[in-house]
Amino acid sequence: MSAAKSARATRKNSGAARVARTASASTRAPSIWRATDLDTYDGPLLLDTHVWIWHLTGDTTHLAPSVVSLLDRVGSTSGLRVSDISYWEVAVKAAKKKITLSVDAAIWLQRAERAPGIRFLPLDRDVLLLSTRLSGTAHNDPADRMLIASAQINNIPLVTADRLIIEYARMIPGTPVVDVRA
Questions:
Q1: How does pLDDT run across 68-119, given as a tens digit for each residue?
Q2: Are 140 and 118 in contact (CB under 8 A)?
Q3: I want to staple 93 with a disulfide (CB 3.0 to 4.6 A). Which of 88, 99, 133, 169 is the partner?
Q4: Which backbone phi and psi does 114 adopt, to 5 degrees?
Q5: Residue 88, helix vs strand vs coil
Q6: Greatest extent of the chain over all pairs of C-alpha atoms, in Å
Q7: Which residues of 155-179 are buried (b: 16+ CB within 10 A; e: fewer)?
Q8: CA distances from 166 to 24, 79, 107, 112, 123 (A)
Q9: Measuring CA to CA, which residue among 93, 94, 92, 81 is closest to residue 55?
């Protein structure tokens, strides 16, 4: 076997093993927090699509002051993460007229790419695979399944107001979630 084939096989096996370990992590305790629980948290946060939109548009009707403070603090160290699936989801929802943005979606997304404090989290094969193997009765929305899988694999709390994601995290250990519902 060539060195290149061996390296690809090693990466492939390690990725599959990582998915298997993450998918079987049912012994972990549920991890659901409120923004006020994370006063000293200094790690990254993965933003659900709607939270990303609210944060970038300054929508404080949906985000409590404690959430805005948390996002600003984590963003000041470039710790906010947005999955590539959220980028796609904004484009799809705008095209289907399910969301209204202040400008065309392409322009909004170009501006969002340059927003301070935010880095994009690529969708990799491990996330795609795990999204099809989530334990229990996982969310049926493919984008949300990929966000859940990203949070699990990267062990990054997913900041969301999505009731179904929060309930999933409550029932299935190993999904770190920050509940921003009022």
A1: 999 999 999 999 999 999 999 999 999 999 999 999 999 999 999 999 999 9
A2: no
A3: 99
A4: -100, 5
A5: helix
A6: 59
A7: ebbbbbbbeebbebbeebebbbbbb
A8: 19, 22, 31, 26, 21
A9: 81
* Cα–Cα nearest to 130, from 119, 122, 138, 120: 138
By the 8 A CB rule, do 135 and 21 touch? no
* Bridge partners, residue 77, by sequence: none
Q: What are the backbone dihedrals phi and psi of residue 47, each rounded to the nearest 5 degrees, phi first?
A: -90, 130
In this structure, the number of other CB atoms found within 10 A of the CB of residue 69 comes to 15
Cα angle 43-71-143, degrees, rounded to a multiple of 5 = 85
Produce one character per residue of 73-106: b if its CB has 16 or more CB atoms within 10 Å, e if not.
bbbeeebbbbbebbbebbeebbeeeebebeeebe
pLDDT tens-digit series, residues 26-53: 444 558 999 999 989 999 999 999 999 9
Residue pair 120/52 in contact by the 8 Å Cβ criterion: no
Q: Measuring CA to CA, which residue among 69, 161, 80, 157 is closest to residue 115?
A: 80
Contact predicate 68/56, CB 8 Å = no
Domains of the chain are: 34-179 (3.40.50.1010)
- Ordered DSSP codes for 26-82: TTSPP-EE-GGGGTT--S-EEEPHHHHHHHHHT-TTTS-HHHHHHHHHHHTTT-EEE
